[in-house]
Amino acid sequence: MPPVPADPGPMTRREAEVRRFVRHRFGLRGTLRLHCAALGWDLLRAPVNVALSPVFLILKLVAALLGWCGARRAAAWLGSRRIFLPSDVARQLEADLTALVERLDAQGVGPGAPPDVTRAAIAAQAETRNAVSEITTSALVLLGGFLLFHRATLGVMSLAGPVAQLRAQSQAIADFALGSWAGRLWYGFFPTSLSPWEVLLTGVVLAVAASLVTTFAGLIADPVQLWTGVHRRRLMRMLARLDRQQGPAGIEREHVLARLGDLGDIASSIWRGLR
Question: Does Transmembrane show up as a keyword for this record (predicted)?
């Protein structure tokens, strides 16, 4: 008979508390209440934070490189920089996570990590959740590209051209002197030409729209991560790191995945330019 752990109770109580927390916060009603905080200044912060996402990833990569080279103090300082504008949703989530850790500590099953280490880990948890919202938006952009244009649109950059072309074509057909039927026939043979400024303006509008979608993408992503156990496992990993008095775990894979669409767009643009 395999040996039984000496005291399985504390970890069981911790996991039970975490399960209750994720059900309450990330279930359908919980995430809806959470996103009510976004109906305000978050709508203006969202485009800025999306624009800052590549900067965040670059700083994390540089911090990891410095740590690998032995410059641990510089790596820790750079990795602890807060890049994103703090959103009301993130503040609410951080407050809820702080309350969770305090409840665990009160029950004797908390990590007991220093306050600054706990705050950094909780902030990283909120940033990771936001990265998942960006991944959800990228998936919606990819799906929209397949449905509307029958092509893979890895990000907003690759979607801007087809959308600008569709808008210009539709406007030209509507304004055709002999009517829309003749316009469709004419522009079917002779498509409208686009200026770079039209594509750029369309890209800016789409980027702003995508940032607003990202703000509320958690309404989809949170319940899915709850049902698949992702939220629970992520919180348990955070608590395990805090048990070891460790802060955030470097670059979370969600941040890299959130930037894959942009990196794919850039690589595709470079490839087209070299051909």
Answer: yes
Q: What residue segments make up the domains of the chain, in order of their start?
A: 10-274
Q: What is the DSSP letter of 153?
A: -
Q: Report residue 250's pLDDT band, with 50, 70 and 90 as the boundaries.
A: low
Which of 7-21, 138-152, 178-192 is modeled with the greatest confidence? 138-152
Pairwise CA distance, residues 161 & 156, whole Å: 9
Q: Which residues, 6 or more positions from 168, have their beta carbon under 8 angstroms from its beta carbon?
A: 192, 194, 198
Q: Find all residues with CB under 8 Å of 49, minimum gap 6, and list them.
A: 84, 85, 87, 130, 211
Q: What percent of the chain has pLDDT over 70?
A: 90
Which of 169, 165, 190 has the alpha carbon at shortest distance from 180? Answer: 169
What b/e readout covers 38-67, taking b as 16+ CB neighbours within 10 angstroms? Answer: beeebeebbbebbeebeebbebbeebeebb
Residues 171-197, mean pLDDT to the nearest whole number: 75
pTM over the 0.85 mark: no
Task: Dump the DSSP string for 89-150.
Answer: HHHHHHHHHHHHHHHHHHTT-S----HHHHHHHHHHHHHHHHHHHHHHHHHHHHHHHHHHHS
Residue with tokens 């000496």: 6
Residue 28: how many other CB atoms lie within 10 Å: 11
Rounded to 10 degrees, the C-alpha dihedral 13/15/19/21 comes to: 70
